[in-house]
Structures
1.
Amino acid sequence: MTAAAELAVRNGWVKSYLVPAPSSILRAMIESRAELFGALLTTSASALVGFLLSTVAGIAIAVFLSSSRAIQRAFYPYAVFFQTVPIIAIAPLLVIWFGYGTRTVVASAFRGVDLPGDREHSQRYSFQPSPPCAISSAFTELPR
């Protein structure tokens, strides 16, 4: 695929201002490696902060939703709704709200770990005690 793209640009089948040749991309990456490495560190740190915040918030939401059946019925539909909205639809709003930079990456990483969808759902049920019949049947039906 890379060789075909290089060949297409070099032979003029595709204009280089539309799709640059892979060799020119590699050359630009090597020339800008210090700047790219700095950007990599900044973005990685921001993503890690977002993931850590999301973990803490996910556990707190799981505890909150598992505390009462009424709270589950009241808030779980909103949790499912927020899970169904793709990050690609939210990304432009994050840029408008937070601007370009670290805060947007943190917010995107925070949302990108599926808060509070499936993870919340599994955590919600893991915070619930198992019914006694499930425990007894698990120990009586052990493989021999």
Note: The chain has eight helices and no strands.
2.
Amino acid sequence: MSDMVNMEMSEKEKEKSIPTSIEGKPEKAKGPQYPYGLKLDLDNESLDKMDIDLSEFDVGDNAMIMAKVKVSSKSIDKYDYDTKERKRISLQITHLCLEQGEEDEDEGEMDWEDDEKEPGKVDQILRKKGY
């Protein structure tokens, strides 16, 4: 499994996403922290289907998702006015597991990699949830 990558936008990326005022100056409002499309909203039916108890989560908590996805489309576009290729992949989530996560003290990021003390831990958690 690949390492997790922090997808938070850089300051330059955030500036690009903030709308400009009529005077052409960036608005003072804080822009989004992460790129469009990386937010996942689960409704009552989805939470019930996965037997998720919302009382176990608080706003600001870290959590882990494990998802099985199907590639529904991919494209690489090149335009005559731009030298940069535009790549895109669309993923349809077909199976999903949500667990409370723990923060890694060193990096501040979560890690679901198996460690030497508990090989197969991730697979055990997913099997227990029926995945």
Note: Residues 46-128 form one domain.
3.
Amino acid sequence: MAIKWTRPLLALATAVAAGSWGAGAQSAPPVGEWRYIGGDAQHTRFSPLDQITADNVATLEVAWTWRGDNFGPTADPILRSTPLYVDGLLYTVAGERRSVAAIDPETGETIWTYREPHTTRWLRGMRNNYGKGVAFAEVAGRAVIFYTSPAFFLHAIDAKSGEHLENWGTRVPLPGFPRSGVIDMLPDLVKDWEPWLTSGYKYDPDHGIPSDPKNGARIPEIGRVKIDIAYGGSCTAGKRDDIDMYARVMADAERAGKRVADGVKFYLQFGSQDVEAYAKARGYTELFARTGVQVIKPGCGACIGCGPGVSDRGDQVTVSAINRNYKGRSGPGRLYLASPLTVAASAVSGEIVEYEDGMFAPRK
């Protein structure tokens, strides 16, 4: 994982740092700056710069490389962050912990970093790494970097010094956390959440919301549960071996002359472009089309409550291979978490069932 900076941009970076644009309005950042992940408040992803052209792009050279693969307990080769460029510095996150770094764009030197102290809730986090970057704002004339960690702490850090803001946020009663400049976001999120209120748990800032593996059941124990939506894939269950399982079930159904049940919508989202290419190469996408599966491009979707697969009525029932079924997370309906095999078999059967080889063939 690395950020590479090309030589023609160095002159631009120096000019921006030495310019006299002032703070500027946050909706209209100074020319050359990139204060939002999308460039500006409207996320136009555009900057009116002209140093790199069709005539000189082939002559660009790497001026420096900033490595971020050691910001965590294991080497992480992935960098999804879009760095911000504000007042002469680059700001990004790196590694499984989303450590924050300020970088000199002229030399590639690391100016400051911040690593959140280790917590149990980080250790069992489902979205470690996966940081798209940081946010920038001016607070009382002070440049501030905001970021949310995988453990669901919001940090406010002085953009120049790397120190947390004083008299901001609430004290986190855990070793290593700063005295201010942090907000634990979980208490506010669960304060009116019925499963939490009735759980009997006492809040622990180290553990956060405790997982409860006991809150599950074998399929025969839940009775007959008709479904309206089946959702497979996403980043959780959209890997190559997961797609193999969906295809295995749908091929079995096709051999028996069956497809997705009437009244059921089966959505399948690839976990990455690589997985999508893999599915196409193996003929899976044609199989899915023939058997009534609606394929979705890689990206965030029903897991975060957007796109196809989200229930829109409280009486709808979904069986899904996503990683969470918090109330309302994927619409107002009921949501059951299940394996890829169960999701696909249920889509064909119209109700939640356990998959068995040859289950769709006529009984003799």
Note: The radius of gyration is 24 Å.
